[in-house]
Design brief:
alpha/beta; Spore Coat Polysaccharide Biosynthesis Protein SpsA, Chain A; UDP N-Acetylglucosamine Acyltransferase, domain 1; 2 domains; seven-stranded mixed beta sheet; 8 helices; 31% strand; elongated; G1P_thy_trans_l; Glucose-1-phosphate thymidylyltransferase; transferase activity; Hexapep_transf_CS
Length: 359
């Protein structure tokens, strides 16, 4: 079995950060989001991985993740051709690399707890043509949604319906055999001009043997800022006590509570309280600051005279503002300072398109 990982798209719902950084490279618990998908694929024993990326981004992705050897795998980066025509089209784009093999198709912005190995085994042992994974959600109209018959069998899947036929979402983890490419040739774009993966699943239901399975544990589609923060929190919760470490320099006055990881070269203190789960990167300085639960602080960050909680701070940011910051995503090399440090007094804002500020 091979793996196809979707790591393209424009991530409009995560602007302005996604203007300059591919969503799949955004840090969750101080690791690029996509690395967690590679973990799951490697855990399932899959070593041949095709990564679908935007045109012109293959080298960027290769510079971050390399050739796959970190996961005992071989990565092939394939640039999307023909424009953004939907998820199902992204799979068709990789046909030369997948023909003749079964494969797991994993959306790179989906993170989950647990192991996909049992799903692989079921797909193979039952001789399925397609296996879809489901998760119960509060807002199924945002996703592809399964419809079931009276006997509980899967009838079809429909994309983002106004009136969802069930409380489940089709998650971004699918298993297919190479009949996919025969089915795709019968597809036409939807009303929104895309080739829908839900239409492909429905084709398999009508023309093959399809299984479905509800994911146990948690699953998160990190499509919006709130989802990104929740995904970060879920991953921080997964930190085991034996995974936490302190490789920095910590002042005697510092209080550390719960699961906290501090990277090499970081300096913490004086008068700092860190209440985990928290991850702090390398070469970061924290002084006169409270860092609260579910916060990830990147590398080369400066935090002074601040309280911050349930937030993600990218590399190189500097925060010295005397304020409490919550539920925030702070981009690379961002500067947040107190109005007391400049004249005239007031709130100075330099914001790009789609910025969000609460004063």
């Amino acid at each position: 079995m091979k793996a196809l990982i979707a790591a393209g798209g424009r991530s409009t719902r995560l602007r302005p950060i996604s203007y300059t950084l591919n969503k799949h490279l955004m840090p969750l618990a101080n690791r690029p989001m996509l690395s967690y998908v590679f973990d799951r694929v490697a855990q399932a024993g899959i070593t041949d991985v095709i990564v679908n990326v935007n045109p012109g981004e293959a080298e960027t992705m290769r510079n971050v993740f390399g050739d796959g050897s970190r996961w005992n795998a071989r990565f092939t980066y394939v640039e999307q051709q023909g424009g953004a025509k939907g998820i199902a089209h992204a799979v068709a784009n990789a046909e030369p690399y997948l023909r003749g093999d079964s494969f797991v198709f994993f959306l790179g912005d989906n993170i989950m707890a647990g192991d996909i190995s049992p799903l692989r085994r079921r797909f193979e042992q039952e001789g399925l043509d397609c296996l879809v994974t489901l998760s119960r959600v509060k807002d199924p109209n945002r996703f592809g949604v399964p419809e079931f018959g009276a006997d509980g069998s899967l009838i079809r899947t429909v994309e983002k319906p106004d009136n969802p036929p069930s409380p489940f979402a089709v998650t971004g983890i699918y298993f297919f055999n190479d009949r996919y490419f025969d089915g795709f040739k019968t597809m036409t774009p939807s009303a929104r001009g895309e080739y829908e993966i839900t239409d492909m699943i429905t084709w398999f239901i009508r023309n093959g043997k399809v299984g479905h399975e509800e994911i146990t544990g948690w699953w998160k589609d990190t499509g919006k800022p709130d989802d990104l923060l929740e995904g970060n929190a879920l991953l921080l919760d997964e930190l085991a006590m034996d995974e936490t470490s302190n490789r920095g320099t910590v002042d005697d006055t510092v209080q550390i509570q719960g699961k906290v990881t501090i990277g090499a070269g970081s300096v913490i203190g004086p008068n700092v309280l860190i209440r985990g789960p928290v991850v702090i990167g390398e070469r970061t300085r924290v002084e006169q600051t409270y860092v609260g639960p579910y916060t990830s602080i990147g590398n080369d960050v400066v935090l002074r005279n601040t309280e911050i909680e349930h937030s993600i701070v990218f590399d190189g940011a500097e925060i010295d503002c005397g304020k409490r910051i919550v539920d925030s995503i702070i981009g690379s090399k961002t500067s947040i300072r107190s109005t007391q440090q400049s004249l005239p007094r007031g709130h100075k804002l330099i914001l790009g398109d789609h910025g969000v500020v609460e004063l």
